[in-house]
Amino acid sequence: MIALPRQRPKPIPAVHPLPEYLATGQRATWYAEMKHALQVPWMGVVTMAFAHYPTFFGELWRGLKPLSESAAFVDTCRVLRTEVEQRAAGLAPQKLSATLVRHGYAPRELDALRDVNTVFSHGNPPYLLIATLARHLLELGDLAGKASAEPFKGRHAPDVSVPPVLMEAHHADAPTQAIYADIKATLNLPFVNTDYRAFARWPSYFALAWNDLRDIVGTPAHEAICQACHDQAAERVAALPNPGGLSATALRQAAETDAPIDEVMEVCRLFQWLLPGLMTNVAYFRHQLESR
Questions:
Q1: What is the pLDDT of residue 167?
Q2: Average pLDDT of the chain to the nearest whole number
Q3: Fewest beta carbons within 10 Å, which of 84, 198, 199, 231?
Q4: For residue 9, is it within any domain?
Q5: Rounded Cα distance, 177 and 174, in Å
Q6: pTM of the prediction?
Q7: Which residues form the domain of 227?
């Protein structure tokens, strides 16, 4: 039995992500350290939302940094990604490559789409682990893993360089804005995750991709993948090592310095609930772009 249930907050709490371009001082340093440790080119909305609570975020990152650089953490991310991608293939995504070629997409554009997907496919699992770890510490208590961890040596990020170009809603045309509204309504979220805004850089592609996915979201088959991803993340986080000495008591005290503890816990629950779905949807998009 999984001790940490998949729990969508009701109502959805207000979130206040601190964008990278507005981060200064210590929080800008934490952002740079986190991107370097996770080997990702962007800060996830989850960690930008956590940064709204600087004492909480600082204590979490202090203990998380050596864990995020460990072989155990990297291996767990790989397992989560592999499982979701294998399961998402069973949802029978529509193959879009030939359609996109007929629309005029050149091979290099298809490669660019696949590269962007690869970056998010690699980067979302660590963000899910971070959200799960925060929930575990706040709700269940200390980790049971050993205090030492073997560092990961080398590069685990994909060998592509694609700083995401985001199509923000205020730049988007009316059809893309309508898709954003549909995403928020379908996923029951007050914001559009970075991944979708990066894919919308190619509006004609994104319309095809989302229209194929939207009727799958929320079905029993889709939910089963999300639940399995959640369960695996919760189970594996409970056994991760703790080389940074993360403490449930210290993290709760840090959170209470910034806001009522229930507020911070609800924000953690929101992201820990939505990230398995985001991973599943990105995996679905990935299969859509397969050449066969």
A1: 67
A2: 94
A3: 231
A4: no
A5: 5
A6: 0.95
A7: 36-146+166-288
